Amino acid sequence: MAERYSSFTPGGTGWLLQRITAAFLVVVLAFHFFQLHFVNHAADVTFAGTQARMENVGYFLTMVLFLIAGTFHGVNGVYNALVNQGLKGTQKKVVLAVLVIASVALIVQGIYVAMAMAGVEIV
Amino acid sequence: MSQSYNRGLIEDFGRWKEFSAGMWAWIFHKFTGWMLIGYLFTHIAVLSTAVGAASGDASLVASGDDIYTTTIQGLESLFIVRVLEVGLLAVAVFHILNGLRLLMVDLGVGLDAQDKSFYASLVLTAIITVASVPTFLDGVTL
């Protein structure tokens, strides 16, 4: 049939993880939108309400996993889009380093925020 | 089996008039992906006001006057933010539906209908987006 159109290395870890996170994100992103726009309206969000949701361990862990999966999927997608666009050599290494640092920063900040929402003290 | 197919440089967007359904799906998926990851960084930045709310005066949280609540409700009171949220929903729904289409393409399911499933993604995105407009614009005025 057809040749491969994807920019990912066939059978590579990045390719596989992109698909595994995709399958997870499809469900959780749809849930997230539904939860915070239809069940609870975004305009009615309060810190007390957020706290109540985040104090539930299952919800907290889902949101943290959502953050990690979303960040990986998005940043890996951006990286592969740039590689597909013809990025190579030193530029490719620099872009990868910047994206990894940005991802780690986003995940660390996100978890810090999630802990603040759940009322977990950080000493 | 595998056969040679020269797709040319799709990255040359000047060729857009030659693009077929699959190429448009590829471009839309990329465009919506950029939007979503850009939004994720902004989203965490806005939600970071929770740190201030958690460490601040507890009575402000009780009365709903903490920085997290006032920031979110302040943003939500702006009509333009509601419009942007509808745009975000459209972008997310298309990325989800086309992503499901891509997972099926990867599994080799329904390859012959890949163009039709792209059109279906667009139509479903439009329907879900339009149907959600009243909910998203609820309680806001120009």
Verbal overview:
The complex is a heterodimer of chains A (123) and B (142). By secondary structure, chain A is mainly alpha-helical. Chain A has a single domain, classed as 3 helical TM bundles of succinate and fumarate reductases (Up-down Bundle), CATH 1.20.1300. Chain A has 4 helices and no strands. Chain B is mainly alpha-helical and 142 residues long. Chain B is built from 6 helices and no strands. Chain A: It is found in: Membrane.
Question: What descriptors fit this protein?
Answer:
heterodimer, A: about 120 residues, mainly alpha, 3 helical TM bundles of succinate and fumarate reductases, elongated, B: mainly alpha, 6 helices, about 70% helix, metal-binding (chain A)
SSE diagram, text form:
The complex is a heterodimer of chains A (123) and B (142).
Chain A: H1 13-39, H2 47-54, H3 57-84, H4 89-118
Chain B: H1 21-47, H2 49-55, H3 58-63, H4 67-76, H5 79-107, H6 114-136
What is the 3D form of chain B? elongated
CATH-assigned fold name of chain B? 3 helical TM bundles of succinate and fumarate reductases
Helical element count of chain A? Answer: 4
Named CATH architecture of chain B: Up-down Bundle
β-strand number of chain A? 0
Order of helices and strands of chain B: HHHHHH
Low-confidence stretches of chain B: none
Structural class of chain A: mainly alpha
Biggest chain pair contact, residues each? A-B, 43 and 51 residues
Question: Termini separation of chain B (Å)?
Answer: 58 Å
User: For the report, how would you describe the main beta sheet of chain A?
Assistant: none
What is the arithmetic mean of pLDDT of chain B? 89
Write a brief structural summary.
The complex is a heterodimer of chains A (123) and B (142). With 123 residues, chain A is mainly alpha-helical.
